[in-house]
Amino acid sequence: MQVSSLNEVKIYSLSCGKSLPEWLSDRKKRALQKKDVDIRRRIELIQDFEMPTVCTTIKVSKDGQYILATVVTFEILSDDYSKIVFLHNDRYIEFHSQSGFYYKTRIPKFGRDFSYHYPSCDLYFVGASSEVYRLNLEQGRYLNPLQTDAAENNVCDINSVHGLFATGTVEGRVECWDPRTRNRVGLLDCALSSVTADSEINSLPTISALKFNGALTMAVGTSTGQVLLYDLRSDKPLLVKDHQYGLPIKSVHFQDSLDLILSADSRIIKMWNKNSGKIFTSLEPEHDLNDVCLYPNSGMLLTANETPKMGIYYIPVLGPAPRWCSFLDNLTEELEENPESTVYDDYKFVTKKDLENLGLTHLIGSPFLRAYMHGFFMDIRLYHKVKLMVNPFAYEEYRKEKIRQKIEETRAQRVQLKKLPKVNKELALKLIEEEEEKQKSTWKKKVKNLPNILTDDRFKVMFENPDFQVDEESEEFRLLNPLVSKISEKRRKKLRLLEQQELREKEEEEELEGKPSDAESSESSDDEKDWVEEVRKQRRLLQQEEKVKRQERLKEDQQTVLTPQFYEIKAGEEFRSFKDSATKQKLMNKTLEDRLKIETKNGTLSVSDTTVGSKQLTFTLRKSEQQKKQQEAEKLHRQERKKLRRSAGHLKSRHRRGQLFH
């Protein structure tokens, strides 16, 4: 038995404790109970209270003598288990009597929930359709369905006092119908009412749970984790309770003696006052919840979980123990125990690969290994014994692992410096600083988050390939960034800190204790300087560097011994002279005036005066030898054509032209 307390309300878990493996025989189970104190002291309130896989729905009969648990939705029509209706996932509806299966039929669309109207003997089915299907059990036939305004319906319930039928839709509305007239009498927009100032809703709330209490009270659970309490005379909720988990509400129950509401999602069961909304207590099982059932007129709570084992809880504040287990009231005061270990602690689950590493593959098929799923169960004592024999240095590895964990804990207290890439460290550090400043800014939420260059695969080569290294000594970089020297000083300090940090980490790998680094980058805020002065200063530095480089080149030229350079002439060509290059060199040494005179003489430059008193210069590009030859050939060709051409001017008659105008 496990005891927990919240708000001074004790909750006793009657289903916790060790579970015996199914393959053990009765003799071995009895032997274990004699040897193991934990198994002997556990309370098995209901024997074999388990499912083969999981359980989704759990209910108690009206007479309190039977507990039914299934993986599909069902409804108990009688006081005991003699009349039960099951709604399957494949649209089938099964009727069972006390002797077993009785009848099976189908509905047109997949069903999700149904309710039974006792006065008319009608079953109302809701599901993946806008229609509510009605099956009359007295006549044994389907009646005309109710047409809702929703695309689909999730849950439904019938008020036991006046017979009002309510269905919850995927649009977040609750439609109320009168079964006598088959007309809709009310519509509640719960999705709009569930949105409050404190709630965070990312999608449209749908109705996931619905429960009536008395003639005028109704509780509605939404898929976003809110529970709304309504008075049927008003379309506004009396109270909105948020589970704060954002999970769909699985079930809602009323506890009238203390004016409590029990609402459950897949993670927690909350009990709160229906008048004030104040939390009474809460229960958080180890596994996810599917359904919750409150045993009538008692403090016992039954849960259907995502495990084969179903949960049984006893809360004395809610009420006494059921009559069939009245001894719980005496045991709860005597058998308060600490939380127990998990299932099968005396056995170790190993895979086939683990057996190969341990050298125990020859035990497959023997009583020492019990096949289960994709592996085997073996005795934990045998496992530890074999593990020690296979790896005698396991303790040393364990000790080294503990030492490493201690070192990691001490490192967590130090100044965390991120590792920088090998290429463009200055640029990477600048980007990291900008990202940190952006995170610290108050308006960061308003700015759209842009991808970081460091984490973007498109710019990955910039920090890996040395060809992309930024040359900070180049003239262009220094003139465009005149203050880069001042800014980069801070980054150089951080780089030195990073190198020292890495050296210390390497030294402390073999030590246990380490002192946290107290080094901090002392950043002094320099006064702003004029950009013009800084640019001039950079230019003077560049000129000095250029002068030093020029002197070094002159020294190298003086020390260099010149040797003649030979050229190989292609076959069929004749060497004339270096006249062209020499002429060009002489021309470059002359003044602009002399060069203009030469260009005028050669015909490449022509000067003319314009009418407005200005001068016009025309430069003609020199033509290559091939172009000159081609032009000469074209000129000769035109002259030859002119010589060969015969004139036709003598054929014209001036006299005839004169007569036309007379």
UniProtKB/TrEMBL annotation:
Record domain Nucleolar protein 10-like second: where: 343-391
Compositional bias annotation for Acidic residues: 520-530
Domain of life: Eukaryota
Pfam family, one: NOL10_2nd
Region feature (Disordered): 505-530, 618-662
Residue stretches of biased makeup (Basic residues): 638-662
UniProt main location, coarse: nucleus
Locations listed in the record: Nucleus, Nucleolus
SUPFAM superfamilies: WD40 repeat-like
Ranges of biased composition (kind: Basic and acidic residues): 622-637
Keywords (A to Z) from UniProt: Nucleus, Repeat, WD repeat
Residues annotated as domain Nucleolar protein 10-like N-terminal: 1-68, 77-338
Residues in NUC153 domain copies: 456-482
Keyword set includes Cytoplasm: no
GO cellular component: nucleolus
Protein name per UniProt: Nucleolar protein 10 isoform 2
